[in-house]
Amino acid sequence: LEPGRAGGPTWKYTGRADWGFLAAVKREFPDRTILGSGDVSTPAEALRMMAETGVDGVLAARGAIGNPWFFGQARDLAAGLPPRQPGLGEQRAVIYRHYQLACDAYDPRRGLKILRHFSLQYAKMHPRRTDLRNALVKVRTEDEWRAAIDTFYGGAAGGGCAGGPGAGRGGPVPPGGDQEPVGGGTAGTVGDFPRPLPGQRR
Fold it and tell me: Residues 201, 53: contact at Cβ < 8 Å?
């Protein structure tokens, strides 16, 4: 469930989600599995939602964009551990894996367009995120994109998309191409923690 926000059906992510609604639903249906959603942008907020509302799990979408480690970090926090922070090498490997999957699902040209967009989201975790974002917005070709990733994340040059012209170097991306939304989105569930949270029904 994602509780409503101010503005009715045209809220478009404005205002704050009403977590009190989630708590009311769980009280009304204590034996049902209730998953909550809304304003969960960090792993700590996922745990806070569970503790404050009693829901059995949390759905996270936008909070995990650029941070696929979100769910493991939430589990760490639930277990009383500091959330694991991936190193630059691990982040780089995931970015290249994401690129390859985008190429496999679409084609090298569109894969580059998609990763130009998502690279800006991954950059939020980088210690030099402003410099990295400034470099990424100038990218037009795969070679330029790979050069930016390899410069800021370290390591030897990463591989291109298999099967495309020039190993994925499909030419420049049209202006504004990085604004194209990717179908399906990114979402996951926070739940099944190592131990219950305080006040959490299991």
Answer: no
